Amino acid sequence: MRKAAVTAVSTVAGVILLLSLKPHQNPAPDMAASPPSSGAPGASSSPAPTGHRPSNGGASGTYTGSVMNTSYGPVQVAVTLSNGRITAVKALRTPSDRPRSQQIAADAVPRLTQEALSAQSAHIDAVSGATYTSEGYTRSLQSALDKAGV
């Protein structure tokens, strides 16, 4: 009888514990593009491409992606292409209003850049702990690649 009571109490406690856990919520960040503020370094109100498309079809030059607003601040990148291949990605804007945001961006951006260079696209994995920065980075990168036509 005692074993049955312990089992019942344990089962009830387990069910209560499971029901009290909150489901993981992943609120979608505001990733809508907005024009950069006029005073931001490296920002321009018309991110026109500075490259050209050679006769072989691959774009070359530097293309600036749209500013992506995240919950922690704006993210913007520029991509440099040579004959349609990504040769460099430079972060123009990253979340920087808080020391923690600066630290996260300082860790995540080099990793995202290396992945983009390896993948030769914006289809890269997010950096753990920097989800919003990663999403802003990849969306801005895709915007730049779209402007380049690749």
From TrEMBL:
Residues covered by the FMN-binding domain: 71-148
InterPro entries: FMN-bd
Coiled-coil ranges from the UniProt annotation: none
Domain of life: Bacteria
One Pfam family, short name: FMN_bind
Stretch list, region Disordered: 26-67
Transmembrane segments: none
Low complexity bias: start-end ranges: 27-49
Protein name: FMN-binding protein
